[in-house]
Design brief:
The complex is a heterodimer.
Chain A: H1 19-29, H2 35-57, E1 63-65, H3 66-85, H4 90-129, H5 137-153, H6 156-159, H7 180-198
Chain B: H1 10-22, H2 24-27, H3 36-52, E1 55-57, H4 63-70, H5 78-98, H6 105-117, H7 124-140
Helix pairs in contact in B: 1-3, 3-5, 4-6, 5-6, 5-7, 6-7
Classes of the chains: A mainly alpha, B mainly alpha.
């Protein structure tokens, strides 16, 4: 008999593409978090934004365009979402955030993003080493240009949420719920799996 | 209040005004001093310019750099000090965007200073409409 862990917040009710925000909304709706706690989290996010802006641009400027600031904030929120997803159950993830704070969760997200980056590099190495000269043109383009471009241009500190490229080699996988590096990671894994089956 | 608007609260204005007043220690050596009221008005001018030009400030702000750079200008007197700082603030944020952030804060202020003390002979109007305009156009090419 399978006994599933009872959780107040169901993962399937959350938006995978906007995980942090949807978890906050759900937690507020179910009164698992107070308005004051949400405000404290927002304050921590703003402090983290200022810190990250200083680190990224502070050498040359004391101000940035609102567009850059918004992109940085989106990047932070995305990274927090990645951090939350490292905890399987949303209730656990919420507890973690409330006990440890935004900075710790952010670092957890950064760590996971770095793991995914390493994973993409390793998978791409395999794809490139096993690529046949008579392979499909779309596959060749994806493996030799698109994915290497992602690794070159992806900047998790400024734009973790930006997947940078749009791979064109079709793969049988539903990517709708993914964005940012999660999308590229899932895509590369699916591409590798398919090419290995065909080999 | 949006996420980014938390950066523009009134408490922040008062803190910014205090920070601006600290630079009187440097400028007073050149006979230039801001009053508390002027410092607060400058803080609001900066906030307005940041909002108008769609920018967010996260560091110490540019007043320190502006005052340090311009306080020894032969074209600034105690009577013109406050108005000149207001004008320079507007010019700075406008051209920060116009130069597409190609220049760092220090480089932009350095250009402004050279032109202000040189060919513009203390005219902020000439600085804005002539020299800085040409600089921005050249950088965009």
């Amino acid at each position: 008999m399978n006994i599933e862990k009872f959780t107040l917040i169901k993962r399937q009710d959350l938006n995978e593409g906007a995980y942090f925000e949807s978890l906050m909304e759900k937690a507020l709706e179910l009164k698992l978090i107070t308005d004051n706690a949400i405000e404290a989290i927002q304050d921590e996010c703003l402090n983290l934004l200022a810190q990250n802006l200083r680190r990224a641009y502070g050498d040359t400027s004391d101000s940035v365009s609102e567009e850059r600031a918004k992109s940085m904030m989106d990047s932070i929120i995305y990274t927090l979402g990645v951090g939350l997803k490292t905890l399987v159950y949303p209730d656990e993830a919420l507890d973690f955030l409330l006990k440890n704070g935004v900075n710790t969760l952010y670092l957890r997200g950064v760590k996971r993003i770095n793991e995914m980056l390493l994973g993409i590099r390793e998978m791409l190495d395999i794809l490139q080493n096993t690529l046949k000269p008579n392979a499909d043109a779309l596959l060749i383009c994806t493996v030799t240009k698109t994915l290497p471009t992602f690794l070159k241009k992806y900047n998790p500190e400024i734009a973790a949420h930006d997947s940078v490229v749009l791979p064109i080699c079709p793969v049988d996988f539903n990517f709708e719920k993914y964005n940012g590096i999660e999308y590229i990671f899932a895509y590369t894994a699916a591409l590798l799996s398919e090419t290995e089956k065909q080999a | 209040m949006s996420r980014l608007e938390l950066f523009k609260s009134n408490g922040l204005m008062l803190r910014n005004a205090s920070n601006i007043l600290k630079y009187n220690e440097i400028s007073k050596n050149f006979g230039l001093v801001l009053t508390q009221k002027q410092a607060l008005m400058l803080a609001y001018v900066r906030a307005d310019e940041l909002r108008y030009h769609g920018r967010l400030e996260f560091g110490e702000g540019i007043f320190g750099k502006l005052i340090e750079s311009f306080c020894d200008s032969p074209y600034i007197t105690q009577q013109s000090y406050f108005e000149t700082l207001c004008a320079l603030t507007e010019i700075f944020y406008y051209y920060k965007n116009e130069t597409e952030e190609y220049l760092s804060d220090a480089e932009l202020i350095d250009c402004m200073k050279r032109y202000f003390n040189g060919s513009c002979k203390g005219s902020t109007e000439l600085l804005s409409t002539r020299e800085m305009d040409e600089l921005a156009r050249n950088l965009k090419r």
